[in-house]
């Protein structure tokens, strides 16, 4: 994987043998990362048909622009960057879905434990179920939602999130902070509604 950028640079200017190396590398990326990209697209698209379309668009675009991959990030990060941009174009055209994807609880239990600390709000957020939190995540502004998803759903470190989102590290920290705060506020509002129901 660390040599991918070198292989691509060499193959871009080479003959038929080098192009075969490039095609071989591309096929290896499909084998290695298709599932990750598809899962990422499914989380946002909310249905298998749109997720498959976005995944295909991602890999098609990656092949067309492989010469731009410099190896400064992992191929997975680069592909998720392309998938994120494909999703944002899709969302602008079609309006983003508010439906949670299938089996979201398994993938999003971790978001329920996204903060540590002693405050009541933080302990409350830790006790949430993933499906409820996912509904709130879908309601976040796009950049906060993407940062939260990359951090908690894809386990990407801040630097890779910055690369995927094409923003600074500080902006990633800000998006995550604001996203967490909005999720906490939503939970506190939900607890107030629940208290009123039990009176």
From TrEMBL:
Record key words, sorted: Sigma factor, Transcription, Transcription regulation
GO BP terms in the entry: DNA-templated transcription initiation
Keyword Transcription among record annotations: yes
Residue ranges annotated for the RNA polymerase sigma factor 70 region 4 type domain, each copy included: 140-183
Any coiled-coil regions, as ranges: none
Alphabetical list of InterPro entries matching this protein: RNA_pol_sigma-70-like (IPR039425), RNA_pol_sigma-70_dom (IPR014284), RNA_pol_sigma70_r2 (IPR007627), RNA_pol_sigma70_r4_t2 (IPR013249), RNA_pol_sigma_r2 (IPR013325), RNA_pol_sigma_r3/r4-like (IPR013324), WH-like_DNA-bd_sf (IPR036388)
GO terms for MF: DNA binding; sigma factor activity
Keyword Transcription regulation: yes
Record domain RNA polymerase sigma-70 region: where: 30-96
Family designation: Belongs to the sigma-70 factor family. ECF subfamily.
Protein name, UniProt field: RNA polymerase sigma factor
Organism taxonomic ancestry: Bacteria, Bacillati, Bacillota, Bacilli, Bacillales
């Amino acid at each position: 994987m660390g040599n991918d950028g070198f292989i691509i640079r060499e193959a871009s200017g080479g003959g038929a043998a080098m192009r075969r190396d490039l095609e071989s590398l591309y096929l290896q990326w499909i084998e290695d990362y298709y599932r990750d990209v598809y899962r990422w697209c499914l989380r946002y698209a909310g249905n298998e048909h749109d997720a498959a379309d976005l995944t295909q668009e991602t890999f098609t675009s990656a092949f067309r622009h492989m010469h731009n991959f410099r190896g400064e990030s992992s191929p997975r990060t680069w592909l998720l960057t392309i998938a994120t941009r494909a999703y944002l174009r899709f969302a602008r055209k079609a309006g983003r879905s508010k439906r949670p994807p299938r089996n979201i609880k398994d993938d999003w239990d971790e978001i329920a434990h996204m903060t540590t600390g002693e405050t009541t709000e933080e302990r409350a957020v830790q006790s949430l179920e993933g499906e409820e939190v996912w509904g709130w995540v879908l309601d976040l502004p796009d950049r906060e939602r993407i940062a939260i998803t990359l951090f908690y759903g894809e386990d990407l470190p801040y630097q890779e999130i910055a690369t995927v989102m094409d923003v600074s590290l500080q902006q990633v920290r800000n998006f995550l902070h604001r996203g967490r705060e909005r999720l906490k506020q939503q939970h506190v509002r939900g607890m107030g509604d629940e208290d009123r129901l039990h009176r």
